Amino acid sequence: MTEDDRALVDAVLGNVPGAFERLVREYQGLCWHIIQRMVRQPEDTRELCQETFLRVHQCLHQYRGESALKSWIGQVAYSMAKRHLEKRRIAIAEPVGDDDGVSLLDQVSDGFDIEAACADAEIAAGLHEEIEALPPLQRTLLTLYHLDEVPIGEIARITGLAEGTIKSHLFRSRARLRERLHARMGVTA
Question: What pTM value is reported for the model?
């Protein structure tokens, strides 16, 4: 935990005027991004963000600083979104199996460059549509890793998933995107 994190947590726990509002301002973007990527409904996202910060306020005394405050708040947001989807019986992820015989878990880079695929506007629009069509977990992991450039270790702390599981989801999501983009462009793989 950084000194800034410790000072902010201490200020909120000490009921310093404006401290909790500062915490919300600092982390509302992260909270919104994680929940919106999972849930996709603006009204539900707003409500879940409010519930997340209510939970953060109620449980902040339990924060021990083993990870960055950002990761801890991200974990609360992820848990709220996941619980919301589970209550509505919405599949969070496609099953991940190891049917390749190859250790894909250790391969994050599989040669598919999302940024390069965005070079052409038509491809970018198709890529955006295909990302939106991914199940909530894969969509969230993919955007956190590739677009927000959150390291896999931090994603693991936020989601509670093993790093190998995250890598596998990323690999399969990129493979799915590559396959669908090739189909859109009439390219045979």
Answer: 0.69
